[in-house]
Amino acid sequence: MLAAQTVYPFVRLEEAKRRRAAAGVTIFDFGMGDPREPTDDRIKGALVDALDETSGYPAAVGLPELRTAIGAWILRRFHVDVDPERELIPTYGSKEAIFSFAQVVVDEATGKDLVLVPEPAYPVYERGALFGRAHVETFPLTAESGFLPDLDAISSSALERMALLWINYPNNPTGAVAPREFYDRLSELAVEHDFLVCSDEAYTELWFDEPPASALQARDRERMVVFNTLSKRSSMTGYRSGFVAANADVISALRKYRPSVGTAPQTFVQRASIVAWSDEEHVERNRRLYGRKRALLLELLERKRFRVAGSRATMYLWVEVPPGETSETFAEHLLAAGVVVAPGSYFGPAGEGYVRFALVPTEPECAAAVEVLEAVL
Ligand SMILES: Cc1ncc(COP(=O)(O)O)c(C=O)c1O
Question: For residue 244, how far is its CA from the centre of ligand 1 (angstroms)?
Fold first, then answer.
């Protein structure tokens, strides 16, 4: 099963970057969405304070205080009351929970064995579904439809077989945002055809105009399974801390599955996470910082007459490549000058024709990269 999967595309990008750096070129890395901003001091302090003499296995259900803090955050942010005891479970970041979800809930014997995934997309939805021995079909996200799926285009046979449908707004890689009504419509469809909507909400906090909605705000949230994380909101990728919010049956299945895998965040990380979910000041600071970096790049790209599609929220800019270039050739062209971007094709064939800038270099690095790009674009 593992051998059948191709190399995770970013591994190839890392190799190309290393070769360029070895040739003495200064690298500005807009490739992977791994924030390099410092984590807030209060969060770091909470982690250090929680380091005890002894360190036992963390329970899969997580600290009750952490679940309460997450529940309180969801209430403040989305005005939805989620039961911390029955409808929430902390996760080791969100990637592992996204990857393993099909394994936990898809049961071939029921005839519901199809997982629908967007394309372009974060590759883990598809990889996880294949690993869970589910069938996978993709649906395209195009600029014409605002990078939202055309729900009417899902065939009736797919609707019948579908166990899970993955969505991700604000979207990686396109930066598109879904309106609140989109979730209402999806939840109706999910009830009608008995499937779960898996909503990856890793980027809900990186916005620049108005706060994006959550699938939890759908009129009927019974079939909504929400994955969120501190990685981007609080620049805590290395801590590995997120959560799943869903109905009590789904959470109960995860409570049964997760102790076998052992992916609860360490207790000291959970203590730091309580501080992170309880504070918005550092998140606002983070948003302002991304806003400034975004303005630097947008000014240049617009002046050079590049089309920036989607890109309303997240740390990404989804940029059309110039005529005559493919995603890969344009990315190679930029890499020659030391600027690393992710070719859109890494996210699936519908990503061809775009490159993605992840605004993760520091503000001074972004300013220096703009000078380099000024000369090569
Ligand atoms: C769309 C999306 N979902 C989920 C994740 C996983 O983040 P983490 O496992 O750090 O929570 C990422 C990370 O880049 C992402 O881009």
Answer: 13
